[in-house]
Amino acid sequence: MSDVPAKPVLLTGASGALGRVMARDLAAAGWRLRLTDIAPFPDPLPPGARFTRADLGDGVAVLRLAEGCGAVLHFGGVSVERPFEEVIGPNIRGLHHVYEAARREGARVVFASSNHAVGFHERAASIAASDPFLPDGYYGLSKAYGELMGRMYWMKHGVESVFLRIGSCLPEPVNARMLATYLSYADLVRLVSRAVLAPRVGACVVWGASANQAMTWWRDDDRATIGWAPQDSADRFAGQLQGKVSGDPVEERYMGGAFCSIDYSRTEPPTK
Description:
seven-stranded parallel beta sheet, Rossmann fold, alpha/beta
């Protein structure tokens, strides 16, 4: 199997931190990329790529960008916890435009979901990809909704999706929580590549975390379906980060970390 898709690939959110990494590395591997974002692309344009500035809320623009594409890497939208009115446009309506474009083109969607779709599971637990959503805010709620939309488009229209529940994708981990949730840039690029190139995926979920020894929270996903295994690890940072915690009992109790504490108003933890 070739390591280069036969058709161009559309990347939304191309001007963000993860989008820039993917644009650089996938273009270097010979992929033909169509890049888009509401913000200008801040780097020199990679070889074989073209950039179009567009708003995910513009359904016609999204349809045009996806013409002839075999896959959409959907990394666009609000990427942190924000008020509902700021999330609903790009993360809900924009997502619908992406799936409509994918349906028309017969394209696969690789959706940047998030650990925040399950953020209110307790860290003492070990959860499978099939366990219930417990979003930790409006951002996480939009990611849970995105996975559900993808499943509906698979059942109703046969649009394939790989949902990447990304942990903490940064140059390196910065606190004790990330010893579990860290996903290296290189593992991300390999994960996205396999999500696009795997022969058949249906609608499947993969936990986006590197091979971290502390990663005991997440298990039983569909990585075998796409043929991906992480190669990097946060373990070499354990000595310097083991005790680097927030002191916030809500943040430290739940998988979603600091997102769980935003606007948290309970006076006692929820019971089962």
